[in-house]
């Protein structure tokens, strides 16, 4: 299976439009995280059937229909993202702290009547940070005999001198940027063979080369035993590289920043205080940037090697619709049942990229800026999966609220398209190969020991979006130069919260802790063992609000 990244992927995309993004980038954008008001977070987001909080505008729009008064609020927070990577005992960690503006919103509640079937029509607006990308990852150590240069060389397989000599190789849609960097940095070369090809092997002075009986290169046509040496030919079907037997990762470092901002507009209805209906229009703004440094000693510690720096940015906007309903099936029971469906987010995105390679084997620094006069960029469209949401809510008097929520999304159905509307078949196929459906469970409780004070607790469990054998496939003409990827496993989130209100004013405080293990790969190679990674994020949120 793993050979696909080195061979089949290259064949599948030969001759089609160049691409830089991968299904890993798309999944990073598509999956949301638990965020919103401190009350919502403190209860683990399990409020789809309970409603009455602005943050349910993005999970079950019908929850805004629960409101019977106007509400304005804002939320601030501080988060600390930590990563730890274990490469066979070489453990490196990194932290990234950041202040956040997480939410601002308002609900306008309009009473229609006490005896009419339609009791309230409510309108809501909410901004919140749907996803934060801020994270740093570090790794180093022995590579177990594997090298990133194998990936670079494999991407060049099949490229002939006519490709390399046909103008600007970084502006050639038949040539991937990894192979172009490797070629310009003298890190890769065609393999040699005694089989006749169109390309006779020569030394730097143009003298023909031969293979002696030991397989060594020589300019002499006659061997020491007096027998003719075999003519050597260049085989451009398969490329080799300068790596030795014990490649060593001097340093890997990546910095991610940016986020997905979500703006929700809602209208909701209260029918007979038994049925609540809601519609939310979501507008999304994406800004994701990733810098990656990969520094390999290709000959072992103390030998020669190279450093590859990649700069990638993904930006754009999108929209979706969310429909929800909350039912009180029994008139005298506080039980509530919630159902919601989210359409895919329809994104229009722009990917820009550049790279710099510095080799110990030559004084020449290969900077793509020198070849394409800045970043290489292009537009594409992404459609995320449908989301199905079901929830339960139950209250005991006015002092206890319990919530449970389940959500399903199938990320293998993500769809990539060119701006003209044509399918990006390779990426759509990769989504099917690498991704799967996810299940998310949210649980939450709120206890009010006294009417003005609340204690909250919540828990989330989310399954992985990646199949067990998923990996980052690169095509023959891909612009991608960062080869690393992490297969995130199931994620756990624990939340705690407190709340206080006096009159119309209220203040809520919440703490959230996310933990997720991952298999991290600096690059893909058949048989390579993953580095064990653990990602955690701690966050404190404060919400201030006023109801009137």
Automatic annotation (TrEMBL):
Keywords of this entry: Receptor, Signal
Domain of life assignment: Bacteria
Presence of keyword Signal: yes
SUPFAM superfamilies the record matches: Porins
Signal peptide: 1-20
Keyword Signal part of the UniProt annotation: yes
Protein name: TonB-dependent receptor
Originating species: Candidatus Bacteroides intestinipullorum
């Amino acid at each position: 299976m793993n050979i696909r990244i080195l061979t089949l992927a290259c064949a599948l995309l030969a001759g089609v439009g160049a691409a830089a993004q991968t299904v890993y980038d798309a999944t990073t954008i598509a999956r949301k995280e638990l965020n919103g008001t401190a009350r919502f977070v403190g209860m683990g987001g399990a409020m789809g059937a309970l409603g009455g909080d602005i943050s349910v505008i993005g999970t079950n729009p019908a929850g805004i229909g629960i409101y019977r008064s106007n509400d304005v609020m804002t939320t601030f927070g501080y988060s600390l993202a930590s990563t730890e990577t274990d490469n066979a005992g070489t453990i490196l960690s990194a932290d990234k702290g950041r202040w956040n503006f997480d939410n601002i919103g308002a609900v306008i509640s309009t009473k229609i009547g006490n005896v009419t079937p339609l009791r309230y029509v409510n309108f809501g607006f909410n901004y919140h940070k749907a996803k934060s990308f801020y994270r740093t990852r570090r790794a180093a150590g022995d590579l177990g005999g594997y090298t990133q240069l194998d990936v670079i060389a494999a991407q060049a397989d099949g490229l002939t001198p006519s490709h390399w000599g046909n103008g600007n190789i970084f502006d050639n849609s038949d040539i991937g940027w990894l192979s172009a960097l490797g070629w310009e940095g003298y890190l890769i070369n065609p393999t040699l063979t005694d089989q006749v090809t169109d390309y006779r092997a020569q030394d730097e002075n143009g003298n023909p080369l031969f293979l002696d009986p030991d397989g060594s290169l020589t300019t002499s046509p006659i061997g020491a035993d007096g027998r003719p040496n075999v003519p050597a030919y260049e085989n451009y079907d398969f490329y080799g590289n300068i790596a030795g037997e014990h490649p060593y990762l001097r340093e890997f470092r990546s910095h991610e920043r940016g986020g997905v901002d979500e703006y929700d507009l809602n209208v909701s209805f209260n029918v007979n205080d038994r049925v609540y209906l809601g519609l939310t229009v979501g507008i999304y703004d994406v800004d994701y940037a990733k810098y990656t440094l990969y520094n390999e000693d290709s000959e072992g510690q103390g030998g020669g090697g190279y450093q590859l720096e990649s700069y990638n940015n993904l930006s754009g906007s999108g929209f979706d619709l969310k429909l929800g309903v909350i039912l009180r099936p029994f008139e005298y029971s506080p039980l509530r049942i919630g159902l919601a469906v989210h359409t895919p987010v329809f994104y229009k995105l722009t990917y820009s990229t550049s790279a710099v390679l510095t080799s110990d084997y030559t004084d020449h620094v290969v900077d793509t800026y020198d070849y394409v006069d800045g970043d290489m960029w292009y537009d594409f469209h992404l459609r995320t999966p449908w989301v199905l949401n079901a929830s339960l809510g139950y209250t005991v008097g006015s002092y206890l609220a319990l919530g449970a929520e389940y959500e399903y999304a199938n990320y293998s159905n993500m769809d990539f398209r060119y701006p003209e509307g044509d399918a990006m078949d390779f990426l759509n196929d990769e989504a099917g190969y690498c991704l799967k459906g996810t299940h998310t469970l949210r649980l939450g409780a709120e206890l009010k020991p006294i009417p003005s004070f609340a204690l909250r607790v919540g828990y989330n469990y989310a399954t992985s979006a990646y199949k067990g054998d998923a990996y980052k496939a690169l095509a023959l003409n891909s612009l991608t130069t960062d080869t690393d990827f992490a297969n995130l496993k199931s994620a756990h989130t624990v939340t705690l919260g407190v709340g206080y209100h006096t009159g119309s004013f209220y203040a809520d405080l919440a703490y959230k802790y996310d933990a997720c293990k991952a298999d991290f790969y600096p690059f893909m190679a058949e048989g390579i063992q993953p580095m064990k990674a653990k990602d955690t994020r701690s966050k404190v949120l404060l919400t201030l609000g006023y109801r009137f």
